[in-house]
Amino acid sequence: MINQWIKCEKCRSIISTPDLEENLFVCPKCNNHFYISARKTIEIMFQDFQELYSHIRSIDFLKFDDYEEKLKKDIEKLGINEAVVVGYGYLKIDRDKKNEIGCAVMDFGFRGGSMGSVVGEKISLIAEYCYQKELPLVIFSASGGARMQEGIISLMQMAKTVSVINKLKSKRIPFINVVTNPTTGGVAASFVAIADIIIAEPLATIGFAGQRVIEQTIKKKLPPNFQTSEFSLNNGLIDAIVHRKDLAQFILNFVSSFYFWKNYSS
Questions:
Q1: Strand 240-241 versus strand 206-207 pairing type
Q2: Phi and psi dihedrals of 91, rounded to 5?
Q3: Residues 81-93, buried b or exposed e (16+ Cβ, 10 A)?
Q4: Exposure b/e, 179-211, CB count within 10 A at least 16 = b
Q5: What kind and span of H or E run contains 153?
Q6: Cα separations in angstroms, 249 against 171, 189, 244, 253
Q7: Residue 245 has pLDDT above 90, yes or no
Q8: 1 — pLDDT class (breaks 50, 70, 90)
Q9: Nearest 5 degrees, angle CA 87-CA 170-CA 180?
């Protein structure tokens, strides 16, 4: 049975599930953006979405304790094979379907959205696909960082994803990153940081190391809003904070400008 009432973790308001869903899983009282799965993000944002590379799955090459079992549980729970879903389609508000987009949507529910070998591979593959097809790339990031169960191989994905995504610049193909809560560690420090446009949902956590680790290192108390979307915008780390209901239109404005320039220059 589906729970008909949900408590907001920010303002503690009690919200009916239908009202929350109608508001795109955003608290109507305090604007807190709830976690939504990769599948739900695609459902809300895209039409005619075609998934790519769904057959690629992680293997336990380091024989890490319980890793295989944890992967199986997340696959069964979320219905996806890894912490990112990639493909192409059109934004739902693009009624004439003139602006095709390549996209990658990360899911924090799958191993904390950690970037292992398959996450890095799928993001690199969709970036290469966008390069070949000359499609804008949009990534919805959500991650705790590198995947510890894959050791140094997970860290190598930082350089790998950045290398392939940088190819887009040679054709002036835009790369837009949408930061959702949370986006931290190696993901925040790699492909997210090189996006042409970095958008964030309100109150999202953005950063590399944890706040406690930083405070212990610099021996100072950090501001209470440190590593939030709002702090990042005020300090020039991101370009805009956009509510989930306005996100599709915001992205479409940039994507349609790219297609206008592309058609005009040809």
A1: unpaired
A2: -65, 145
A3: bbbbbbbbbbbee
A4: bbbbbbbbbbbbbbeebbbbbbbbbbbbbeeee
A5: helix 151-165
A6: 24, 27, 10, 6
A7: yes
A8: very low
A9: 45
Of 169, 174, 167, residue with least CA distance to 255: 174
Mean pLDDT for 156-173 is 97
Q: Which of 93, 86, 82 lies closest to 116 in space, CA to CA?
A: 82
Please tell me the distance from the alpha carbon of residue 31 to that of residue 180, in angstroms, as a whole number. Answer: 14
CB 238 within 8 A of CB 198: yes
pLDDT given for residue 2 in this prediction: 57
The two three-digit tokens of residue 130, written as one number: 């966008």
What's the CATH architecture for 36-265?
Alpha-Beta Complex (3.90)
Question: Which pair of structure tokens corresponds to residue 193?
Answer: 């940081």
pLDDT digits (tens, 9 = 90+) for 50-93: 999 999 999 999 999 999 999 999 999 999 999 999 999 999 99
The yes-or-no verdict on residue 239 having pLDDT over 60 is yes
Joined tokens for residue 146: 């590198």
